[in-house]
Structure formats: structure tokens, C-alpha cells
Amino acid sequence: MAETRALAGRTAVITGSNSGIGLGIATELARAGADVVLNSFTDRPEDHDLAARLGAEHGVAARYLAADMSRPDDCRGLIERAGRCDILVNNAGIQHVAPIPDFPAAKWDAILAINLSSAFHTTAAALPLMRAAGWGRVVNIASAHGLTASPFKSAYVAAKHGLVGLTKVTALETAEEPITCNAVCPGYVLTPLVEAQIPDQMVVHGMDRDTVIREVMLTRQPSRQFATVEQLGGTVVFLCSPAADQITGTTISVDGGWTAL
């Protein structure tokens, strides 16, 4: 099938995008014709090679820019070095699981910095560029945990709820401009990291692959199916399309019915 090039001429910056969900989103944006800037905190030859391959495959300009999303100056500097940012996808995130009394303060600070504060800093740097260009899209990758909660994930749940709130404020501040801001809230997504966990779960529970996915890993996802990175990327592309011009300040759940419970 021929690729549609609806986003040709746009530049998208995707944080945390050298693997998993971020790379899936970057791939779908490139497929739609957008030039892309990939990002993570590493600066390896394979990171730059990944961008080169993505650009060549889809006929777009693609770069990799290293920046540590736990550092405010790096966050803002990423946007400045990109030079243009029509589409900003705030995807970078980390996780840690522990009861509140045992939750390490350093882990709390890191999760809030990377999962929430980074989006504030990149958005603050990107909005002037979008206003100068006369068009912009901010898409924050939140989570089902931005709308509901689970035990032992205090920092992650707090950060993702905060990201949904930041989404609403950004939308209100840009409501009279051709700029929108929305949050995508995935449930469990089949990424290489999740895929690698399946064999261990099969051994621990003495179940086959399909059973451990349905009965252990996806107990909170009523569809009993993982979301895919392609589906999340497609959702982001939709939010950048003219059909979504009046969609702003809201959340779109890609969670197999999790938040309908």
C-alpha cells in the first residue's frame, strides 16, 4: 500500500524514541511524511544509524539527538537543537514499583522529572516555534495510569495524572490558535521490553504463552490483547490530521477497555 504523505513538510520531535512506543510513533509519523527527530539519553553509533535507516526507509529527514530528559536544560536544548518542532510527542518515561513507605526518594524524583517535568520543559520551548510556524501539535503519551491507579506505582501514577493535567492547561492556553494538545493513554503495549518478560512469566506460572498473556499480564485489559506500537503511532498521526483540528485538551485511551471498568 502506498504511504500517504499528509505530514510532509512537518518536523516531529519524539522524546524517548530509540525503541518501543516512541520508535513506533516516530515510524508512523515518518510514514506519513514528517521529518523526525529521535531522542534518548544515550549517544551511540547505533542510535544515529537507527535514525538514518528510518529516514531512508520513508524518504524523510531523520536525526538522532541525545538529551537527558531528567535535566531541564537538556529538555529545552533538545527543542532548540531540533531547530523546528511542528509536532512534539512527549513520550520519555521510566517506572519503579514499590510500596509508598519503601519507595526510594531518588526514584520518585527521577520519575517525576522524566515522566512529567520533561514535558513541561519541551512544551515551553516548542510553543514559540509552533506559534511562529502558525501550526502545531503536542501529543503527550500518558497512560491508563493517568486516568486510574494501581498499588505500588505512586510516582508513575502521580506523574501520568499530572501529564493529563498539563495537557489540559496547554490546550486552554492555545485554544484560539491552530495548535492542539492531547494525551494518548495506552494500556499494556507489546514492546520488546514486554515481549522479553513473557518467557519468565510462563515459567513462574507454569502456563503457555497465550494463557500467561491473557490470565496474568492482561488481567486489567478487558480485550485480553496488547495494544501495538503501530496503533499508538496511528493514533498520534490522526491527532496531527485535519480531522482532529477541534480535538484538544482531551485523552484518547488505547487500552482495550481498561478505563471503562
Number of domains: 2
| Total of DSSP H or I helical runs spanning 4+ residues | 8
CATH homolog superfamily of the largest domain: NAD(P)-binding Rossmann-like Domain
Strand order of the largest sheet: 3-2-1-4-5-6-7
| Principal-axes shape call | globular
Uncertain residue segments: none
Please tell me the overall pLDDT: 97
Q: How much helix, percentage-wise, in residues?
A: 40-55%
CATH topology tier name of the largest domain: Rossmann fold
Give a short account of the largest sheet.
7 strands, parallel
Helix and strand run: EHEHEHEHEHEHHHE
Q: What's the N-to-C terminus distance?
A: 37 Å
| Helix-strand makeup class | alpha/beta
What is the annotated CATH architecture of the largest domain?
3-Layer(aba) Sandwich
Strand fraction: 5-15%
What's the total number of strands? 7
CATH class division of the largest domain: Alpha Beta
Radius of gyration of CA atoms, rounded to a whole number: 18 Å
Give the tags.
alpha/beta, Rossmann fold, 2 domains, 14% strand
Structural features, described:
- By secondary structure, the chain is an alpha/beta fold.
- Helix content is 46%, strand content 14%.
- It contains eight helices and seven strands, in the order βαβαβαβαβαβαααβ.
- It has helices spanning 20-31, 45-58, 72-82, 105-133, 154-173, 192-205, 209-217, 229-239, and strands at 11-14, 35-40, 62-66, 87-90, 136-141, 179-186, 251-254.
- α3 (72-82) packs parallel to α4.
- It is globular.
- The model has no long low-confidence stretch (mean pLDDT 97).
